[in-house]
Design goal:
Shape: globular
Number of domains: 2
CATH topology of the largest domain: Dihydrodipicolinate Reductase, domain 2
CATH class of the largest domain: Alpha Beta
Amino acid sequence: MDRRTFIRQAGVAAAGMTIVPSTVVSGLGHVMPSDKLNIAGVGVGGMGRSNLRNMNSQNIVALCDVDWKYAAKCFNDYPDAAVYKDYRRMMDDMGDEIDAVVVGTPDHTHYVVTADAMRAGKHVYVQKPLTHSVYESRMLAKLAKETGVATQMGNQGNSGEGIRQVCEWIWNGEIGEVKEVHAWTNRPIWPQGLERPTETPSVPPTLDWDLFIGPAKWRPYHPAYTPWNWRAWWDFGTGALGDMGCHIIDPVFKALNLGQPTAFEGSSSQVNTESAPIAEKVTYYFPERKKMGKVNMPAVEFTWYDGGLLPDRPKGIPEGKILGDGGGGAMFVGSKGTLICSTYARDPYIVGRENDPPKATNELRRVETSHEMDWVRACKEDKSSRTEASSHFGYSAPLNEVVVMGNLAIRLQDLKRKLEWDGANMKITNIADDEEIRVVSSDKFTVVDGDPRFDTQYATINAKQAMEEYIKRPYRKGWNY
């Protein structure tokens, strides 16, 4: 038993009390609106801490992080909360006391923590990207239906006014039919395009490295992986696209009712076996969809850019005006006009109508609280009559599939073709069994007597097997779907 757990349990015993979850207090199998949720946080050193702060009107009863140095500030925020390194032990010890779980771990462990919590009947709030892979997203959408728990992905712009303006303006026909869309981000702002370190320094005493690795393939510890820099590595993160796509692609996905693409293709700066590239471009091809409001939804070509790449500037935008904001944005090219919004769908405007924006139609529900508290509200409502949180898994899991499948386009770009996508079966259909791709495994450059010397090594990989593993990655022994 750790010190905080001992103090907490001793204090409860001295008071002659037993901690009872609010689901029991309500007596109705759900949390009454007047009750407070008992919330546990898993992965609380970064965004998890911020999310908990935005719901600290509730009871924060347990905190879990594999790195107690990185999580120390959050532990100090809630001195009465029990602390753990292994979320599974936390659930074993305190499962009856926990109503809901906030997941802020690295991408590669989002699924295992979330799925276990949902199977235990806990409501879940999960940082973006929802999962590391397409298959994991599909599974979480299925689990949400089966368990009926309240869910939310942490793409906070989905609760903002901007995304509602974008949707309502487009659905009202303000820019006509949209056949071309672009979205971009300035990320990565961390190192990418990296080779695996060869040094094997000692693991810090505050970090449980085995738990950090989780379901990923084993590798020795190195500070290049954590904290935070895990985003760059294919085994742990999803690169700039995974980091910001769920924010910036969100208004595109929602306003255009995108669903599954039929194909995609990608190109990038050098891609290697270990780490996402420094800059990339991915184009998705979506078929015609059903009409939304007053406007038809024809087939659309959607292109994503990161690493500083940008789309061509549209006609009519003033010289010197940046596209979106410094962090990124999205641009809808319609038959009657062009709509641009910033990161998180903020500050939308129609080019040439900056001083004459369309009126809101109020077709979409407005979130009057925060993204986090909208989820808390949903947790407290009976599932039979619940108004789901704005980015519940029924919406955010399909969005996340589109985001992370973009990495398939990048990792398989050596096939040099548009990749045809079978969304129902989660596979690329135009890869032959015996096709191979060559991917850089090491790239060295030196200058000898004024002359350049290149030493680039390649790994030759079966393309179909790689595709299957990127869509549903194999888990390390001891970790299950």
